[in-house]
Amino acid sequence: MAIQDLTNIKRCEIYSHFDDLSVSVCGGVSNFRYYESILENTVSASLTVVDTGYSIKSKKGVGTTGIIDGLDLRGGEKVFMVFIDNYGNELRFENDRCFRINRIRNIAEDTTKMAFVIDMCSSELLFNELEDRRVIKRYNGEISQSVSKILKDNLKTTKNLDLEKTQNHYNFIGEYRKPLDLCTLLAKYSIPESKDSFGKTAGYFFFETYDGFKFKSIDNLFMNSSNCNKYI
Fold first, then answer.
1. ∠ CA(97), CA(98), CA(101), 5° rounding?
2. Mean pLDDT of the chain
3. Is residue 79 a contact partner of residue 120, using CB atoms and an 8 Å limit?
4. Closest CA to 66 of 123, 39, 28
5. What is the pTM of this model?
6. Could you say which of 32, 76, 102, 177 is the most buried, measured as most Cβ atoms within 10 Å of its Cβ?
7. pLDDT in tens, 115-170
8. What is the per-residue DSSP string for 90-150?
């Protein structure tokens, strides 16, 4: 989803890893896109910024250097955003729910300005890569309960979890897998709570929306959608 009216961006503040530096770039945003997909584990966004020379706020004073050099952006920095989507909903990505810089690309510079694109992701996508978040121990019981434990204990997310209960049990060992990857794998083996559903279901989707992480039966998603009445 692209934000059609950029005045609907109420906050866009980038924080450095160092020296408590931050800068608001609301006035320099020329394009903003926000993405949610049932085929992606986390939400993401991209931000095109035109930097004509910002004053960077700091407890230590005010600087006038450019954003990338002034904040020493290297990846993983926090980005706090508040915006109104095209349906009139206010979405707040702040504090524990903030975006993180995944990469900076398409840098173009001349004598008066610098333009670049910031690709942003959920914090959990970066946490998923950390060694101490890997899943090691054995899990027994309902798959939906195992997914809940992995997200809370390993990924350590504080976001809301909307996990549809599974009827089947599945025993497994983490084998040092990444939390998000393992939850995606478990979705394939999951069976919803419905009569005579063994061997006749399509598995689950594991994805993130603004409301948090969701683990949902494909069958029930199709059944509850007025736009989809057939699937293979």
1. 140
2. 88
3. yes
4. 28
5. 0.87
6. 32
7. 999 999 999 999 999 999 999 999 999 999 999 999 999 999 999 999 999 999 99
8. EEEE-GGG-EEEEEEEEEEE-SS-EEEEEEEEEHHHHHTT-GGG-B-SEE-SBHHHHHHHI
Query: Over 60: is that where the pLDDT of 232 sits?
Result: no
Among 25, 26, 42, 43, which residue's Cα sits nearest to residue 34? 43
18: nearest Cα among 80, 69, 65: 69
Confidence of residue 101 (pLDDT cuts 50, 70, 90): very high
148-155 — which CB contacts under 8 Å span 24+ positions? Answer: 150/174, 150/179, 150/182, 150/183, 151/179, 151/183, 151/213, 154/179, 155/124, 155/127, 155/128, 155/179, 155/180
Q: What is the pLDDT of residue 220?
A: 85
Q: How far is CA 197 from the centre of its chain?
A: 32
The token pair at 199 is 């061997």
Beta pairing class for 204-209 and 212-217: antiparallel
* Look-up of token digits 């997909």: 37
Structure tokens at 120: 């942003």
